[in-house]
Amino acid sequence: MGSIGFIGAGSMAEAMVAGLLKGKVYKPEEVVVANRSNSARLEQLSKMYGIKTTHDKERLVKESSIIVLAMKPKDIQAGIDGIQELIENQLIVSVLAGISFETITNILGKQTAIVRAMPNTSAAIGKSATAIAASKDVTNEQIETCKSLFEAIGICKLVEENQLDAVTGLSGSGPAYIYYLVEAMEKAAIEVGLESAVARDLIVQTLLGASEMIAISEKHPSQLRKEVTSPNGTTEAGITILKERGFEDSLVTCIKRATERATELKVMFEDELITIEKK
Ligand SMILES: NC(=O)C1=CN([C@@H]2O[C@H](COP(=O)(O)OP(=O)(O)OC[C@H]3O[C@@H](n4cnc5c(N)ncnc54)[C@H](OP(=O)(O)O)[C@@H]3O)[C@@H](O)[C@H]2O)C=CC1
Ligand SMILES: O=C(O)[C@@H]1CCC=N1
């Protein structure tokens, strides 16, 4: 596949690098990561993974056949500045929430092959839930390349660009909802008298078991839930509280709001671009 370069050396870039190396999709010497100024971070990544690191984006672009944009949405203009002229046949893969093909193309100043991807940080252990969308300049072969890249670090679904904000709100942000749930379960476990290490193990196994049941069982999650819930038993007592306190509504509103926020990021950024152009 040639080499892969990441512009941005944060959580998402690291999760992808870790997963790609673990899955042996790339050798460490075929991976280069760049950031803006944080040399300590580059040193840490280079020590941990044996990959190449640089502040020199031009070098990264020249060395890579796939360039992953992995900076925050607000930093995309600065992140791309200086490399536009060097983009020729490389495939651009953007993991930025909310930022459209149109905006990336405008900043690049040329029509080129761009794939937008929305992975999640479980990429680090090969378990990302990723969706990708392809711009019209992307060939079928490039789509396949991209799919196999993300399938090496989890599952990958092909969607339309206008569905990516929903994917971001659902599975891009999704791991954080689960971590938050675990934090709350741990807090509760301690309050009902368990030791934190014991509670952690029980919670983790409960999540793993339930996830695997959902994945392999032919039963709907609502049926699986019913099977845990004895009439007048403990589960019913607990779930009654979740219903009374609006658990379902909270989660639905959470995912809708996160989806909406992805759309806002695009609008905010475009406003900023217009301001920059006017200056
Ligand atoms: N975190 C997540 O779970 C997910 C994130 N994403 C997307 O991934 C992207 C990155 O997120 P995340 O990894 O969390 O962010 P981080 O803040 O952890 O990392 C951002 C990185 O971008 C670098 N950067 C900023 N400006 C530039 C520049 N001009 N040139 C080169 N590098 C630059 C920063 O370098 P420096 O430190 O030197 O400033 C830093 O290494 C976001 O767009 C987000 O929407 C998508 C899916 C999931
Ligand atoms: O919170 C964010 O904006 C990014 C996108 C999805 C996960 N993290």
Short description:
Its EC number is 1.5.1.2. This protein is α/β, with parallel strands linked by helices and 279 residues long.
In round numbers, the mean pLDDT is: 95
Give the names of the bound compounds. NADPH dihydro-nicotinamide-adenine-dinucleotide phosphate, (2S)-3,4-dihydro-2H-pyrrole-2-carboxylic acid
Q: Mind describing the biggest β-sheet?
A: 8 strands, mixed
Tell me the fraction of residues in β-strands, as a range.
Answer: 5-15%
The helix/strand class is alpha/beta
Rg, Cα atoms, Å: 21 Å
Q: In CATH, what is the homologous superfamily of the largest domain?
A: NAD(P)-binding Rossmann-like Domain
What's the CATH C level of the largest domain?
Alpha Beta
CATH topology of the largest domain: the name is Rossmann fold
Distance between the termini: 41 Å
Identify the strand order in the major beta sheet: 3-2-1-4-5-6-7-8
**Element-level helix/strand string:** EHEHEHEHEHEEHEHHHHHH
E-strand count: 8
What spatial form do the alpha-carbon principal axes imply?
elongated
Range of helix content: 55-70%
Tally of alpha and pi helices: 12
Low-confidence stretches: none
CATH architecture of the largest domain: 3-Layer(aba) Sandwich
